User: Which sequence fits this backbone?
């Protein structure tokens, strides 16, 4: 039986970070419960709602509607509650979400992740999270330098991280992932080294490092476009500096015993994220909530991004799906390469060639000659030294 990942989106935050281009908002706490009610309804009635919107679930016997294929009979082994800042919610709401999951799916809950920001962690909540079945925290650390956190509009400070991690550990959370951002305004090689060193000092099981993306959908991005000074837009590190930060992270994390398994992700042995691996391996996952994305092998679909419109659709007992894309063989092939090469384990070009009836030897031969990729037999992966320029390699491959 195929296993599923389940993603639940909570699009609420306490403040809006300057660099954020996500569909998240700062809203009254009164809106949390109706939103969670709607998500619980969508989880519980996913078969009817997805089927009514035109989603089809492939089976060994050909395409069938979700209802016919009894998607609920699929086993889910990972749940990821992301956002936004889902740790803002009262635990009773998180519990309601996880109970809906248990009612709607055969769910082994091998990995149940909650995204949590440091300032929201208190002992009572941490204990309740564990009791509700949450066994992994994705912790929004971002930086250990207060000037950088402040410039980025983050709510927490370094002291909050030092206060929160022992609370999570004492509550019995044995799987914590730290997020760090390389390329924050005011960040220097020295301050980045400090953040890496302090993060490693906590010995989290997993570390994700994201390169700062300047997007015009964020306040910082708009300020950069108009060459303004607000949000410390003129104190952003250069692209070259960011590549240096990334290279330093590779060295320091490896020295500290972390294994890099994806362009942005490092883990201690046995702690690679089961849920996130499904994205890169093109395994099926269902997303619930405003803006959540789903993938079933032959279609990708996404929900309305506006939280109020999402709640209104679900309250009217209508699907909240905004967009469905049927994957052509060409698109699926591009995904295999693009997503597969994000993983340090690489891709099997022999298998992909046979499955899609294409010969990839020419493309990969050229990149191997430039030292951009490494090839051992049919296995191809990005050269570790080229990971910081991975986008250029991927664009060249998909040309
Ligand atoms: S906490 Fe995350 S989702 Fe919320 S505003 Fe900041 S970056 Fe965006």
Assistant:
């Amino acid at each position: 039986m195929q296993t599923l990942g389940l993603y639940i989106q909570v699009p609420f935050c306490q403040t809006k970070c300057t660099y954020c281009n996500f569909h998240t908002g700062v809203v009254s706490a009164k809106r949390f419960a109706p939103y969670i009610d709607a998500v619980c309804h969508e989880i519980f009635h996913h078969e009817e709602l997805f089927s009514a919107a035109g989603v089809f679930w492939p089976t060994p016997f050909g395409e069938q509607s979700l209802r016919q294929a009894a998607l609920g009979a699929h086993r889910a082994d990972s749940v990821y509650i992301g956002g936004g800042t889902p740790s803002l919610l009262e635990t009773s709401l998180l519990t309601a979400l996880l109970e809906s999951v248990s009612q709607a799916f055969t769910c082994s809950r091998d990995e149940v992740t909650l995204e949590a920001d440091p300032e929201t962690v208190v002992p009572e909540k941490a204990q309740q999270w564990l009791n509700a079945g949450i066994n992994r925290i994705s912790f929004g650390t971002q930086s250990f330098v207060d000037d950088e956190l402040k410039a980025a509009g983050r709510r927490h400070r370094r002291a909050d991280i030092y206060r929160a991690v022992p609370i999570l550990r004492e509550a019995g959370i044995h799987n914590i992932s730290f997020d760090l951002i390389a390329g924050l305004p005011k960040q220097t090689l020295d301050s980045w080294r400090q953040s890496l060193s302090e993060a490693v000092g906590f010995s989290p099981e997993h570390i994700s490092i994201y390169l700062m993306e300047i997007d015009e959908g964020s306040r910082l991005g708009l300020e950069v476009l108009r060459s303004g000074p607000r949000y410390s837009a003129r104190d952003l590190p250069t692209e070259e500096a960011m590549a240096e930060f990334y290279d330093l992270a590779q060295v320091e994390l490896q020295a500290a015993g972390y294994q890099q398994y994806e362009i942005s992700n490092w883990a201690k042995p046995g702690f690679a994220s089961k849920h996130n691996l499904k994205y890169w391996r093109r395994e099926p996952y269902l997303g619930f909530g405003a803006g959540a994305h789903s993938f079933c092998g032959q279609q990708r679909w996404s929900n309305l991004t506006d939280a109020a419109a999402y709640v209104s659709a679900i309250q009217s007992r209508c699907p909240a799906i905004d967009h469905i894309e049927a994957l052509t063989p060409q698109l699926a092939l591009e995904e295999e390469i693009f997503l597969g090469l994000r993983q340090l384990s690489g891709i099997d070009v022999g298998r992909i060639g046979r499955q899609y009836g294409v010969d990839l030897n020419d493309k990969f031969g050229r990149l191997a000659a430039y030292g951009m990729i490494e090839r051992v037999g049919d296995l191809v992966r990005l050269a570790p030294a080229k990971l910081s320029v991975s986008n250029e390699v991927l664009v060249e491959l998909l040309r």
Summary: The chain is about 40% helix and 25% strand.
